[in-house]
Amino acid sequence: MRITSITPQERNPSRRNIFVDGQFALGVGPETLLRFGLRTGDELTPALLQQLEQAEELVSAHAAAMRFLGVRPRTEKEIRDKLREKEYGDEEIQRTIASLKAARLLDDAEFARAYVSDQLAKKPAGALLLRRKLLLLGVSKDIIEETLKGFLGPEADEQRALSLARDFVRKSRALRPNEVEVKLRQRTSTFLGRRGFTWDVIRAVSKTLFSHTEDDTDGQSPE
Fold first, then answer.
1. How much is the pTM?
2. pLDDT one-digit tens code per residue, 7-50
3. Quick one: how many helices (H) and strands (E) in the chain?
4. Domain with 35 in it
5. Which of 71, 153, 191, 206 sits most deeply, having the most CB atoms within 10 A of its CB?
């Protein structure tokens, strides 16, 4: 088999159509063309054809990953799942991920730090909620715990919860001026629980905001 012609594609001139013995064989991008140094007249063995197809698949997988990363930073799991969804092979996926890591475009530790910083800037949240979200995104437990140590601590967590709770109580009292204090306290605790704060933090905040209310909820975690 010999390459009889290499012509630009009509819809994408940067790519080339390769014809073997007068018949179309495959399309390749400029990276593959340069990497293999393909020219008209070159012999094209079945083994070389397979290498070309694999190279193109890898280029395609890398391009798909870059488009995905272009929307927002991603975790390794997100990239892996996206490429599997597009039916790329395990080898192409692994090599793509390795390439992205080498280029520092994929770093779960950096992703976790940026994610937590962004989440806390948007709206205060507790360690439980942040941990759950990061786990769902595929970040490892070790990276999560190391990241949270840098952002959260007992005092900082309590201050964030107190700020959230005060705002919640203010709005609640404006909307429900006749609500009894015990009920408001219970709703505030439930709200903080949904925001991912631990029961120790919730209890401390409740005692600060509702110091004159009987502690009916002590010892009970909010649902």
1. 0.68
2. 998 888 888 999 999 899 888 888 888 888 888 998 888 899 88
3. 10, 3
4. 1-44
5. 206
